[in-house]
Amino acid sequence: MTATIIDGSAIAKAIRAEIAAEVAAMVEGGEAPPHLAVVLCGNDPASATYVRNKGRAAERAGIRFTLHTPGGDSTTSEILDLCARISEDPDVDGMLVQLPLPRQIDSAAVLEAVPAAKDADGFHPLNLGRLAAGAAARVVPGTPLGCMELLRRSGVPIAGSRAVVVGRSVIVGRPVALLLVNADATVTVCHSKTRDLAGVCREADILIAAIGRPGMITGEYVKPGAAVIDVGTSPVDGQLRGDVDRASVEPIAGWLTPVPGGVGPMTIAMLLRNTLALARAHRAAPAR
Ligand code: GUN
After folding, report:
1. Taking CB atoms and a 6 Å cutoff, what residues make up the pocket around ligand 1?
2. For the CA of 97, the nearest atom of ligand 1
3. CA distance 2 to 224
4. C-beta separation of 214 from 242 below 8 A
5. Active-site residue, from 7, 98, 118, 119
6. Which of 120, 136, 192, 232 could cross-link with 243 by S-S, CB 3.0 to 4.6 Å?
7. Which ligand 1 atom minimizes the distance to the CA of 99?
8. The whole model's pTM is what?
9. Does 54 qualify as catalytic in the annotation?
10. Distance from residue 98's CA to the centre of ligand 1 (Å)
11. How far apart are CA 208 and CA 176, in angstroms?
């Protein structure tokens, strides 16, 4: 068997076009376009690239994009004040603070300063809690939602499947495990203390690799025919490398996402979807 390579770039492009059409209809109906505000604190080059890509994708979809760039020496209270000002702006529908933040800043406090009603990333504890409660969530973190959309649009059966998630981060591992449970998969979450990781992974019909260790998931970890979703994006020698060793996994898996061009483009498409959902809710019942 050779895996079907899931083209995340093409799927993300189709979703961005769907969103652009919905935004255009909104504007034709006399409404202002959705407005996303982003805080980029400091000079991390990878974060600057991600934010530039978010801005470009937003504007191409017709979404208004405002960037705030406080210095890397900002204090927690300065960032909290900035978040408060943005969140109180009635013209802003959705906002996010790009992570990671500089070390001196209390990231948990900042994530809670983004109100749930304007939380374009879905990282607010209330929104994560809604996901944990199995409730229909208005916003869901972009990367996990992107993984689910890739599975669905590729025709991978989810209900009743065995899913294994490697990595338990708040941004990816935990929320993707909740989404899989909510979609009726039987889910195991693995981490650095898991015994016989390869053996556990080999039980997976759906394997989500979100560890941040380039090439760690080799063919030995994969059940024949499994869907393997690679969330890793580690820079190695100037190129992005995933967590999956494509050369040994591709001959065994049923489906595989490449890096780059798999999950990455989906994260931004899902951010745009969250922004549109927040704008609709905000206009129906203005939080501010
Ligand atoms: N850093 C890496 N991924 C993300 C993301 O999805 N959102 C934010 N805010 N920061 C990130």
Report:
1. 96-99, 121, 142-143, 171, 267
2. 9
3. 10
4. yes
5. 98
6. 232
7. 10
8. 0.95
9. yes
10. 5
11. 8
What range does the domain containing 72 cover? 32-115
| Cα separation, 169 vs 191, whole angstroms | 9
**Same domain as 207, residue 108:** no
CATH number of the domain where residue 96 is located: 3.40.50.10860
Q: Which atom of ligand 1 is nearest to the CA of 38?
A: 9
User: Looking only at Cα atoms, what is the longest distance across the chain?
Assistant: 58
Q: Is 81 part of any domain?
A: yes
Query: Among all chains, which residue has been given the structure tokens 């203005």?
Result: 286
Q: Are residues 190 and 249 in the same domain?
A: yes
Q: Helices 263-284 and 8-28 sit at what angle, rounded to 10 degrees? A: 20
User: Is residue 252 in some structural domain?
Assistant: yes
Task: Exactly one of 54, 230, 243, 245 is catalytic; name it.
Answer: 54
105 and 156 together in one domain? no
Residue-wise pLDDT tens for the chain (288 aa)?
799 999 999 999 999 999 999 999 999 999 999 999 999 999 999 899 999 999 999 999 999 999 999 999 999 999 999 999 999 999 999 999 999 999 999 999 999 999 999 999 999 999 999 999 998 888 999 999 999 999 999 999 999 999 999 999 999 999 999 999 999 999 999 999 999 999 999 999 999 999 999 999 999 999 999 999 999 999 999 899 999 999 999 999 999 999 999 999 999 999 999 999 999 999 988 765
121 is catalytic: yes
